[in-house]
Design goal:
494 residues; Helical scaffold and wing domains of SecA; 11 strands
C-alpha cells in the first residue's frame, strides 16, 4: 500500500515494530486440485487439532463458505461456533472464548479484526492459537489480518492457508506458468502440494490483483478530481456570496460576462454594432437607451472587455435605481444574495445530473480510439462553462424584471422583505412582472402558509408517470425546468 499512499495522497508509510517479538509460525500454503479436496483436508486438520485440545480459528472468504464448512464439521460431530454477523448477541462471547482449549471458531477472514484473542490455560504449551485460512483473499492485507489473530503480544501461534486450483484467485489471477505446471501433474485424490515457491507464486497473484484494483481506484480518482475542481469553484463562489464579500461586484462581473458572452452578436468584424447593443439592453434588462447615447457614453473604449466592464456599471446602476429606489441598501443586497444563490444551486444540480450521464457512457469513446478520461475532462469543462453561462443568463433575466416596493409602515416598525416573486409566464415581451410589496413584520396574518408537496422521486427511482423508466431518463429535466420557472422567494430579511 506504500506506493498507493504516495501516488494518490502524497504520504509516506512507516512500519511500526511490534511490542514484543513475533513467535508465530506462518507455514507454507497447501494446494489441492479441487475445492472439495481442500475442505476435506481442512476438516481433517481441525479434527486432529481438536483432539489435542488446540484452539482453532478458521477463516473463510464468505458467509456462504463458513456455513458450508460448519455443516461439514457438524457431520464430523466437531463442536464449533460460527461467527458470520448473523448472531450479534453471542459474537462477543464467541471471540472471548476462541482462545480456550478445544474451541473451534469458524469465521470470515475479517472476523475478530483488531481483537486480541486471549489464550486459555495450558494453550501456550500446545503451540497457541491455530489459524487456518480456507482460501486466499484478493488482498494480502485481509489475509494478514487473519494471521494476526494468532501470536499476539509474544504468544506462540500457528497459521496456514489451504488453496485449491478452483479458488477464484487462482482461476482469475494465477500465472499461466503456475497453472500449466500444476495441471501437468498427475494428481491423486487428496494429494497436496506444499513449497515456498508455490506460496510465493500465490502472493504474486495477490499482488497482481492489488495492482489491478489500485489502477481502478487511481483512474476513478482522476475522474473525481475533474468534478472536485468544479465543486471547489462553485462552493468558493457560494461562500463569497453568503458572506457578502463583494456581492455586488460579483453581480456586476456576471453582467459584464453576459455581455462578453454575446460578443459575436454585438460585433461586426472589429466594429461594435451599437443598434444591436441597444436592442440587447432593452430585451434583457428592460433598459431603453438609444444607440447614439450608447456610442457617446462608451464609444471611447476600444477593447470589448473594457467596454463590457464599464457597461455593466451603467446597467447595474440603472437596475438598482429601478429595483430598490426606496428600500435600504441591506434589503437590496439580501435580494441579490438569495436570488443569485437560488440560481447557482439550481444550475449546479442540473450540472451534476449531466456529469453523471456523461460518466455512464464515456467509456464507449475508447471504441473510437479516443482516451475516455481526456474526453471526459473536455466535455465536463464545456458543460461547466455552459452552466456558468446559464447562471448569468438566468441572473440578468431576473434582474431585468425584479421589483422591490415598500408599503407604508410606521417608522418605528421593522420592515421585512416578505417575498420577491418573478414568474416567467407573467412576463411578456418587455413586460414587468407583478411583485409583492413590503409587509410589516408585525402583521402575522399576511405571512404565507407552508405548502406541502408530494415527494419527488430520486434520479434512479421509477418515474411518477408510470412509464417504467428511471426518473432521470424520463420527466426529471422537464420537472426541473418547471421548477426554474417557479417563483424566487426571499423571506424574513431585515
Amino acid at each position: 500500500e506504500a506506493e498507493e499512499f504516495w501516488k494518490i495522497y502524497g504520504l509516506d508509510v512507516v512500519v511500526i515494530p511490534t511490542h514484543k517479538p513475533v513467535k508465530r509460525i506462518d507455514a507454507n500454503d497447501r494446494i489441492y486440485a479441487t475445492e472439495k479436496e481442500k475442505f476435506e483436508a481442512v476438516v481433517k486438520e481441525i479434527k486432529e487439532l481438536h483432539k489435542k485440545g488446540v484452539p482453532v480459528l478458521v477463516g473463510t472468504i464468505s458467509v456462504e463458505k463458513s456455513e458450508m464448512l460448519s455443516e461439514m464439521l457438524r457431520k464430523e460431530r466437531i463442536p464449533h461456533n460460527v461467527l458470520n454477523a448473523k448472531n450479534h448477541e453471542k459474537e462477543a462471547k464467541i471471540i472471548a472464548e476462541a482462545g480456550k482449549k478445544f474451541a473451534v471458531t469458524v469465521a470470515t477472514n475479517m472476523a475478530g479484526r483488531g481483537v486480541d484473542i486471549k489464550l486459555g490455560e495450558g494453550v501456550r504449551e500446545l503451540g497457541g492459537l491455530h489459524v487456518i485460512g480456507t482460501e486466499r483473499h484478493e488482498s494480502r492485507r485481509i489475509d494478514n489480518q487473519l494471521r494476526g489473530r494468532a501470536g499476539r503480544q509474544g504468544d506462540p501461534g500457528f497459521t496456514r492457508f489451504y488453496v485449491s486450483l478452483e479458488d477464484e484467485l487462482m482461476r482469475l489471477f494465477g500465472s499461466d506458468r503456475l497453472k500449466r505446471m500444476l495441471q501437468a501433474l498427475k494428481w491423486e485424490y487428496g494429494q497436496e502440494l506444499e513449497h515456498p515457491w508455490l506460496t510465493s507464486a500465490i502472493e504474486n497473484a495477490q499482488k497482481r490483483v492489488e495492482k489491478y484494483n489500485f489502477e481502478i481506484r487511481r483512474y476513478l480518482l482522476e475522474y473525481d478530481n475533474v468534478l472536485n475542481e468544479q465543486r471547489n469553484t462553485v462552493y468558493s463562489l457560494r461562500d463569497k456570496i453568503l458572506r457578502n464579500e463583494g456581492l455586488l461586484d460579483v453581480v456586476k462581473k456576471m453582467i459584464a460576462d453576459y455581455i462578453i458572452d454575446n460578443e459575436e452578436r454585438l460585433t461586426v468584424g472589429s466594429s461594435l454594432n451599437w443598434l444591436e447593443l441597444s436592442s440587447l439592453l432593452q430585451e434583457t434588462f428592460l433598459i431603453e437607451v438609444s444607440e447614439n447615447v450608447l456610442k457617446e457614453k462608451f464609444g471611447r473604449y476600444g477593447d470589448f472587455e473594457e467596454l463590457a466592464d464599464n457597461l455593466s456599471e451603467f446597467v447595474f446602476a440603472s437596475i438598482k435605481d429601478r429595483i430598490a429606489r426606496n428600500v435600504p441598501e441591506r434589503v437590496f443586497c439580501e435580494a441579490m444574495k438569495v436570488t443569485l444563490l437560488n440560481i447557482i444551486d439550481m444550475k449546479w444540480i442540473d450540472h451534476l445530473y449531466k456529469i453523471d450521464e456523461l460518466r455512464e457512457g464515456i467509456s464507449l469513446r475508447s471504441y473510437g480510439e479516443r482516451n475516455p478520461l481526456v474526453e471526459f475532462k473536455l466535455d465536463a469543462a464545456e458543460a461547466f462553462h455552459e452552466m456558468m453561462k446559464g447562471v448569468r443568463r438566468e441572473l440578468v433575466f431576473i434582474l431585468g424584471r425584479m421589483r422591490i416596493t415598500e408599503s407604508v409602515v410606521p417608522s418605528e416598525a421593522l420592515v421585512s422583505l416578505d417575498r420577491i416573486s418573478v414568474r416567467h409566464d407573467e412576463v411578456g415581451q418587455f413586460g414587468i412582472a407583478r411583485v409583492n410589496p413590503f409587509a410589516s413584520a408585525t402583521s402575522g396574518s399576511d405571512r404565507s402558509q407552508p405548502v406541502r408537496v408530494a415527494r419527488k422521486p430520486g434520479p434512479n427511482e421509477p418515474c411518477w408517470c408510470g412509464s417504467g423508466k428511471k426518473y432521470k431518463k424520463c420527466h426529471m429535466q422537464s420537472d426541473l425546468a418547471k421548477e426554474r420557472e417557479a417563483s424566487y422567494n426571499i423571506k424574513d430579511y431585515v
